[in-house]
Amino acid sequence: MQLDQELLWLVGGIVGLLALSSTITFFLKRRAGGVSKVVANLDARVKAWWIMVAVFGIALATGGLGSVILFGFMSFFALREFITLTPTRAGDHRTLFWAFFIITPLQYYLVAMEWYGLFSILIPVYAFIFVPTRSALAGDSEHFLERTAKIQWALMICVYCVSHVPALLTLRIPGYEGQNAKLLLFFVLVVQISDVLQYVWGKLFGKRAIVPTISPNKTVEGSGVACSPPRPSAPPCGGPPLSRGGRRRCCRSCSR
Amino acid sequence: MTKDFVAWLIRIVCGVRFLPVEALPPAPIILFANHSSHLDFVTIWAALPPAIRARTRPVAGRDYWEKSTGRRRIACGFFNAVLIERQHVTVATNPLEPMVAALEAGDSLIVFPEGTRSADGTVHPFKPGLYHLARARPGITLVPVYLQNLSRILPKGESLPVPLLGSLSVGTPIQLAPDEAKPAFLERARAAVQQLAL
């Protein structure tokens, strides 16, 4: 990883923003006297963001490997949640064991060794064939297609998709060598800022909940704001010099 | 020390949390739960606060846990289990006696009144042992416990766990009423566990 001006601005901005949030929270807490539920929630969130930034900072500082390991664990825990909420049967037990302990580590191992040709198809091709095969060998035909689809897409979402975040570090962009950490940082920042703004604007001005049965705190007002700010600041258009096609594609996605 | 580490490891693998001390009435008590996996008693054991865990003994079938020295060492040495006879019950091997003796000594018990692991996830009718135990120690508090998802983490017949999130719920304690009939009490106890499944 290369410490350049842009990266310093990015990191400095994140730490500055968090420091400001901590200060505001500190004064709000003193004023509320520890009774306000909203302030307690805000305090917990700010602390969680500090931890997130610290973990992420350490992972980035160790270079590619640290990030791959971090996201590998994220995938593992995401898969754990996903499968817990998805009904499977006893016949899927061995398949699930493979999904957790062989396919997930293998996917991240391939990302770490930068074998793009294989990690981009390991799950949608090989794991998709392997999962129904292993489940069929267990001899339980009840709800077979349904069970297969559940495990396949759990792997697709929790492992395949998430593994492409650290894979950003392995992208070879001409003229942008050694700076890929910024892409990763930017990606995580956009996601987090959207969450922060949604929360803040929702709390301040939110009136109409979008889907109260699912998330009572997500409001039309909050989401409108959360979706808009990343646009003007989206750097990939002005940042890494992409090929013409890449730039066009990228700008289209920014202005959507 | 080792026991605390093993308990921590089990809580991590099964995704269950520590039970707060306030969740349980004062010892000795009988914790009774649904049975679907080998992880059941270790999970309850691991979720108990350390001080209570030290004075709580799981009740297990002698026929299974005495099959090899390894199993015996785990059951008796590590978990301090009360092993009872399931198959050839005679006056000399009355399964009730070691359990009552443990309660008299001030220890709590973990029992699985279904008698064996249920494969389909439902709570099967209880064996009469729980009733006899409650009658032998009048006034004893029985605490229903419902374990969820453990049969998915380690199903019957498998030896490798899949790390899903399990959960453990503790219900309102019950006691045997002075003139309560056996079937009524057993059904009430079963319902207390089943109710926690919702």
List the helices and strands and how they pair.
The complex is a heterodimer of chains A (256) and B (198).
Chain A: H1 5-32, H2 37-61, H3 64-85, H4 93-112, H5 116-119, H6 122-137, H7 144-163, H8 181-205, H9 220-227, H10 230-233, H11 244-255
Chain B: H1 2-14, E1 29-33, H2 39-47, H3 50-53, E2 56-61, H4 62-65, H5 69-78, E3 82-84, H6 96-104, E4 108-111, H7 129-136, E5 141-148, H8 150-153, E6 167-170, H9 182-194
Helix pairs in contact in B: 1-2
What does this structure look like?
The complex is a heterodimer of chains A (256) and B (198). With 256 residues, chain A is an all-alpha fold. Chain A has 3 domains: 1-61; 67-170; 185-256, no CATH class. Chain A is 72% helix and 0% strand. Chain A is built from 11 helices and no strands. Chain A has helices spanning 5-32, 37-61, 64-85, 93-112, 116-119, 122-137, 144-163, 181-205, 220-227, 230-233, 244-255. Chain A is globular. Chain B has one domain. In chain B, strands 3-2-4-1-5-6 form a 6-stranded mixed sheet, sandwiched between helices. The longest helix of chain B has 13 residues, at 2-14. Chain B is globular and about 45 Å long. At the A-B interface, helix 3 and helix 4 of A face loops of B.
Short description:
The complex is a heterodimer of chains A (256) and B (198). Chain A is an all-alpha fold. Chain A has helices at residues 5-32, 37-61, 64-85, 93-112, 116-119, 122-137, 144-163, 181-205, 220-227, 230-233, 244-255.
Q: Which stretches of chain B of 5+ consecutive residues score pLDDT under 50?
A: none
- Terminus-to-terminus distance of chain A: 31 Å
Question: What percentage of the residues of chain A does DSSP assign to strands (E)?
Answer: under 5%
Our Rg estimate of chain B from Cα atoms comes to: 16 Å
Number of DSSP E strands of chain B: 6
Q: Note the overall shape of chain B.
A: globular
Largest interface: A-B, 11 and 13 residues
In DSSP terms (H or I, runs of 4 or more residues), the helix count of chain B works out at 9
Helical fraction of chain B: 25-40%
